[in-house]
Amino acid sequence: GESVGLHLPTLSVQEGDNSIINCAYSNSASDYFIWYKQESGKGPQFIIDIRSNMDKRQGQRVTVLLNKTVKHLSLQIAATQPGDSAVYFCADGASGSARQLTFGSGTQLTVLP
Amino acid sequence: NAGVTQTPKFRILKIGQSMTLQCTQDMNHNYMYWYRQDPGMGLKLIYYSVGAGITDKGEVPNGYNVSRSTTEDFPLRLELAAPSQTSVYFCASSYSMLRRNQSTDTQYFGPGTRLTVL
């Protein structure tokens, strides 16, 4: 079946540096992509999303880039802070699928002091 | 708004017991979802509902049942608990409507129910 995968299971960055978390998807019908942050013992928290008619979307300290040609998206976090330490999931969905999302397995981001 | 609430937070069941995981949302969302998350893994969809009275299977529905009698509530039922159902269960909801250049499909998650079957 279709799946969403992440390139790296863990990522460590120095506080203040920028973080980049990558994600590959395989469903060519996907038109909606979303990033979630999950802290230990909590439910996933929405960070940012993007539709397939865009290739970049910015939020507060976060940017999502979408490359439909190679089915790849990334999450960039500027000036990473200790509070950014968490597991980050990408997910994709397709129109007409009752907005079901397919989740990747997650990347553990650790911010070093 | 409280958002999505789930009860209980934790539960230990014996093999063969049954239980219902409760989920309520106060955002008037039409879509609701149940996921399970095994350790170190992503979320897998169990069941979903596009509105009151309508439910459908997700990726891993075996061993579970759902109902959606109201917009707000979407309980998940385990009839005969098995060790393989040990997991963390998340309920989510979204308001799905097409708007130009805006996403209204964001799924909002509850805090989860940690279930152990011994």
Walk me through what this model shows.
The complex is a heterodimer of chains A (113) and B (118). Chain A has 113 residues and is an all-beta fold. Chain A has strands at 4-6, 10-14, 19-25, 32-38, 45-51, 56-58, 62-67, 72-77, 86-93, 101-103, 107-112. In chain A, strand 4 and strand 5 form a beta hairpin. The relative contact order of chain A is 0.33. The mean pLDDT of chain A is 89. In chain B, a hairpin with a 2-residue loop joins strand 5 and strand 6. With 118 residues, chain B is an all-beta fold. In chain B, strands 2, 4, 5, 6, 9, 10 and 11 form a seven-stranded mixed β-sheet that branches. A four-stranded antiparallel β-sheet of chain B has the order 1-3-8-7, with no helix packed on it. Chain B has strands spanning 4-7, 10-13, 19-25, 31-37, 43-51, 54-57, 64-66, 76-78, 87-94, 108-109, 113-117. Chain B is globular. Chain B is built from no helices and eleven strands. Chains A and B meet through strand 4, strand 5 and strand 9 of A and strand 4, strand 5, strand 9 and strand 10 of B.
The helix/strand order of chain B is EEEEEEEEEEE
Main sheet specs of chain A: 6 strands, mixed
Q: Overall mean pLDDT score of chain A?
A: 89
Please give the share of residues in helix of chain A: under 10%
Annotation field: number of helices of chain B: 0
**Percent of residues in beta strands of chain B:** over 45%
Separation of the first and last Cα atoms of chain A: 41 Å
Evaluate the radius of gyration of chain A.
Answer: 13 Å
Number of strands of chain A: 11
Helicity level of chain B? under 10%
User: What does the radius of gyration of chain B come to?
Assistant: 14 Å
Shape of chain A: globular
